[in-house]
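Protein 1 of 2
SEQ + STRUCT:
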Amino acid sequence: MIILSPPISDEVISGLNAGEAVFITGKIYTARDAAHKKIAELIEAGKNPPGKELLFDFNGQAVFYAGPSPAKPSRPIGCIGPTTSGRMDRYSPLFISKGLKVMIGKGNRSEAVIEAIVKHRGLYLAAIGGVAALMAKTVKAAKVIAFEELGTEAVMELEVENFPAIVAIDCRGKNLYAPL
């Protein structure tokens, strides 16, 4: 069993191959379309790039493209499943260049994202769609850390244990979504 614990180093990333199953234990962050747009606007405006002062330190971190449902009583979060990653493709190369190492979602990625993954030694992990209630059981704690006004699209910090994913695009550009 391969367990990734963010922040994830280049050395760990280099040892992973497309098709391998992994589990993530530690802090990951959620962000979807609206949050990506706001973060990119802040970076492009020359404001504090994402870091401890603004949101979270991108270096070595993982972002899960998800918008969780409200938490049930005595649970830190409601159902949480992956959203289509392609909607974040216009922002991902910028975030990868700022240190983001791992993206988690579903579906193929653009050539620009794959090139950024290879250039900056990152990973794209596929989360299993359709099992949002089961994935929620891996979340031990959750809190909104930015853009609360976005509701389910707010940026959240999650503490996860054995969150399951599959390496879909490795740091060499091998892509499980590529045609055979």
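Protein 2 of 2
SEQ + STRUCT:
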Amino acid sequence: MPLNPLNKPPTDFTPPPNLKRIRKGLVLINTGNGKGKTTAGFGMMLRAWGRGMNSMAVQFIKSEKSKYGEQMAAEKIGIEMIPAGRGFSWTSKDLTEDEALAQNGWQIAKEKISSGEYDVIMLDEITYPVTWGWIDVDEVIEVIANKPEMLNLIITGRDAHKKLVDVADLVTEMKEIKHPYADQGIPAQKGVEF
């Protein structure tokens, strides 16, 4: 899309008729096969932190034994992050342990969501355990339906379940066009991927 020096909305944007300003917590999904889903979620959490809002994340794949850049940054500025996985589940030799960790992460997430203490909660990479049947999608939908009114909930991960997409206020699909590893064999880079 070309730059618009007149600060007008793009020509393909038409606001709904009788647009009313509604204040409510949103459900946002970052999905798709491209990079940037978690990064976009953390960008929103950082924006909320800058506004004095209380944010936290439960990471359903990341391991507490690993230290990722976003975890180190969150720790420095006081954003709570709970890793609830074992790393890349597709390399696991015992998926029952991965499933148990995901279930534990979901219990923690439900407590955080219902606590009323947060303005923004990210369920990072929850789409995977939902897709694999480790976390029941209907239970996730029920928790979303009963979340505090002003809580913004960010859901990330590939292949977001249709039921999650249906209840979300905003769904963004990250589409891979080119990838340094797939196209050039360049491995994950510190500060970019982790």
